[in-house]
């Protein structure tokens, strides 16, 4: 059964129903969930996707967002006033799930994680109470919701701090040949250690999609791409990105000034619905030679044309928050690596999943502590405690207080014991 909620009261009724009948249930926001926990078998989906209201206060730079919104909904409303907050990099991502797991994207080096810009939440707890969580009200619950996922309740409204962004930003791609990968990724690792907070550069290695600025002969070949976004004056940004062009002999580039909301949609074609996906992820404080060699080895043996390895660069403002300030504690993670296996047919399952797992194991000795819970797959329940690190015991105590029977368990689960 799917309970299509349009208000907090609907959510309360749905939650009371599943509790009364002892039914398994999932909570669906935007539905963008690699672990599949927004759906469940033989139970109830509490579907929030129709709760899509966004209210912007342009004078106080505040955004109020319901949990059915995706990034495109939020970005469009905020950008109407030249405002934004750090979110992800695909416009189809659900705001709620992204936020509850931490959240980072192009603006995070300048303005922090998504949760660093979260000011308050309306939440329905396991006993059906409607509470407000902020620094001044239910502050322990507020601490846990900022990174603790869906373990403590169902959020029906988020309140964010907004910042002046765009509406046009300098952004784009530079694409290099894969046979220059060692040099490109090594220079990328050095460059990203000292670049200004306004600049973000991510690295992706995969087979080239049919990008119009690349020659047809390059399509389908292994490449190393640098994705760039400068959240400041584009003229100043040009000075900072110029060294990137000298990293190697590029196949081509497409960099210019465009609306921020368009850049947020640029990678949507790589995550269209219907494909089979399996992800593995590590945090890194630095990128040394050994993990770079591992990336090159496995990127040279992609099991399908849609598989990729990407390095998301964070650091900057994200590392200036104290680890104990909220449930997300991995403030030493300057890079988040995602092994994104993606393919079309069931006969490819074994090969593609094995490739992702092997690379994950090969690169693990060089990773730093913790993991990003939004990148954990459905078979990684044993990594939940590791992902939270020093925050885990406090999260267990909080779970015991707000959800002692583990009602909210179809998630990256924190047990109340």
Describe the structure.
- Strand 4 (54-57) and strand 5 form a beta hairpin.
- The chain has helices spanning 8-20, 71-79, 95-101, 108-111, 139-145, 181-194, 234-241, 260-263, 289-299, 349-363, 384-388, 392-402, and strands at 2-4, 25-28, 44-47, 54-57, 62-65, 83-84, 118-124, 130-134, 154-161, 163-164, 168-177, 199-207, 222-230, 252-259, 276-284, 308-313, 335-343.
- The chain is an alpha+beta fold and 417 residues long.
- The protein is globular, with a radius of gyration of 21 Å.
- The longest helix has 15 residues, at 349-363.
- Helix 9 (289-299) runs antiparallel to helix 10 (349-363).
SSE blueprint and pairings:
Layout: E1 2-4, H1 8-20, E2 25-28, E3 44-47, E4 54-57, E5 62-65, H2 71-79, E6 83-84, H3 95-101, H4 108-111, E7 118-124, E8 130-134, H5 139-145, E9 154-161, E10 163-164, E11 168-177, H6 181-194, E12 199-207, E13 222-230, H7 234-241, E14 252-259, H8 260-263, E15 276-284, H9 289-299, E16 308-313, E17 335-343, H10 349-363, H11 384-388, H12 392-402
Parallel strand pairs: 1-3, 2-3
Antiparallel strand pairs: 4-5, 5-9, 6-10, 7-8, 7-9, 11-13, 11-14, 12-13, 12-16, 15-17, 16-17
Helix pairs in contact: 6-9, 9-10
Secondary-structure element string: EHEEEEHEHHEEHEEEHEEHEHEHEEHHH
What radius of gyration results from the CA coordinates?
Answer: 21 Å
The strands making up the biggest β-sheet line up spatially as: 14-11-13-12-16-17-15
Main pleated-sheet profile:
7 strands, antiparallel
* Overall SS class: alpha+beta
Q: Cα distance, first to last residue?
A: 30 Å
| Helix share, percent | 25-40%
Which residue ranges are poorly predicted, with pLDDT under 50 across at least 5 consecutive positions? none
Number of helical regions: 12
Shape: globular
Mean pLDDT: 96
Query: Care to count the β-strands?
Result: 17
How much of the residues is beta strand, in percent?
A: 15-25%
């Amino acid at each position: 059964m799917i309970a299509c909620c349009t208000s907090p009261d609907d959510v309360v009724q749905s939650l009371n129903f599943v509790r009364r009948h002892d039914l398994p249930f999932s909570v669906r926001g935007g539905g963008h969930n690699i672990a599949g926990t927004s759906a469940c078998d033989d139970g109830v989906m509490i579907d929030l996707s129709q709760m899509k209201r966004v209210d912007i206060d342009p004078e106080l730079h505040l955004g109020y967002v319901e949990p059915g919104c995706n990034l495109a909904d939020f970005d469009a409303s905020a950008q109407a006033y030249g405002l934004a907050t750090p979110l992800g990099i695909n416009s189809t991502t659900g705001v709620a799930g992204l936020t509850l797991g931490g959240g980072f994207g192009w603006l995070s080096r300048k303005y922090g994680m998504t949760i660093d810009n979260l000011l308050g939440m309306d939440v329905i707890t396991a006993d059906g109470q409607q509470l407000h969580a902020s620094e001044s009200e239910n502050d322990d619950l507020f601490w846990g919701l900022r990174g603790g996922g869906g373990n403590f309740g169902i959020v029906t409204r988020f309140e964010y701090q907004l910042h002046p962004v765009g509406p046009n930003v300098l952004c784009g791609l530079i694409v290099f040949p894969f046979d220059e990968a060692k040099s490109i990724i090594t220079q990328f690792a050095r460059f990203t250690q000292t670049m200004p907070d306004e600049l973000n550069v991510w690295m992706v290695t995969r087979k080239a999609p049919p990008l119009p600025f690349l020659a047809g002969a390059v399509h389908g070949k292994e490449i190393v791409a640098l994705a760039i976004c400068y959240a400041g004056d584009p003229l100043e940004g040009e000075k900072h990105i110029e060294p990137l062009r000298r990293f190697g002999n590029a196949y081509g580039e497409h960099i210019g000034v465009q609306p921020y909301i368009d850049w947020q949609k640029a990678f949507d074609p790589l995550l269209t619905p219907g494909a089979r996906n399996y992800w593995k992820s590590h945090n890194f404080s630095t990128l040394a030679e050994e993990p770079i060699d591992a990336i090159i080895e496995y990127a040279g043996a992609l099991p399908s044309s849609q598989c990729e390895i990407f390095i998301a660069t964070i650091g900057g403002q994200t590392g200036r928050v104290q680890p104990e300030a909220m449930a997300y504690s991995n403030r030493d993670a300057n890079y988040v690596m995602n092994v994104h296996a993606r393919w079309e047919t069931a006969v490819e399952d074994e090969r593609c999943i094995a490739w992702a797992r092997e690379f994950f194991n090969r690169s693990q000795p060089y990773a730093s502590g913790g993991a990003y819970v939004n990148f954990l797959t459905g078979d990684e329940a044993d990594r939940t405690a590791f992902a939270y690190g020093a925050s885990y015991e406090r999260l267990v105590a909080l779970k015991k207080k707000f959800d002692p029977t583990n009602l909210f368990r179809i998630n990256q689960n924190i047990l109340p014991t």
